Amino acid sequence: MANGSPRSPALGPKRMRRQCPLTAGETACIDLCMATKTLSVDEGAYRILARARKDAKESFSQVIKRASWDTGKPRCGGLLSRTRGLPFMPEAALDTLDDAQRKDLPPESKWTH
To answer: How many C-alpha atoms does 89 have within 13 Å on its Cβ side?
Structure first.
């Protein structure tokens, strides 16, 4: 890299600043705003990420951001919001459920059914 390229250690910081069109403040922002984290993945996960790339220039960060993730099972809040406006359960049905709950006792022995 001694051929005068910007990465050459022989150029030093002053020379590189003159070649860089960004101001010192812009460079500092890029350094601070572009935080990265190191992840460890096994070989299989690496191959999956590599195959998922659209092209050789797409980063693994872009692949991960493009991925769709299972958000898990719906929570009670979603269930409650879907029941708004529906009629209430009849009292007789609630009584039947209460009866079944009272009769649902644990087995006498955990070793037999």
So the answer is: 9
Q: Which position has the token pair 């009670």?
A: 76
Name the H helices within the chain: 12-19, 24-33, 43-52, 60-66, 76-83, 91-103
Token code pair at residue 113? 């059914």
The pLDDT value given to residue 97: 93
Q: For residue 53, what are the contacts with CB-CB under 8 A and spacing of at least 6?
A: 60, 63
Residue 25 lies in domain: 7-35
- Mean pLDDT (10-residue bins), the chain, 113 residues: 47 52 60 73 93 91 87 76 87 94 84 70
Is residue 17 in some structural domain? yes
Which 8-state DSSP code applies to residue 68? -
Q: CA-CA distance, 32 to 39, in Å (whole number)?
A: 19
CA dihedral 87, 89, 90, 92 (to 10 degrees): 170
- Residue 47, both tokens: 């191959």
Q: How many domains does the chain have?
A: 1
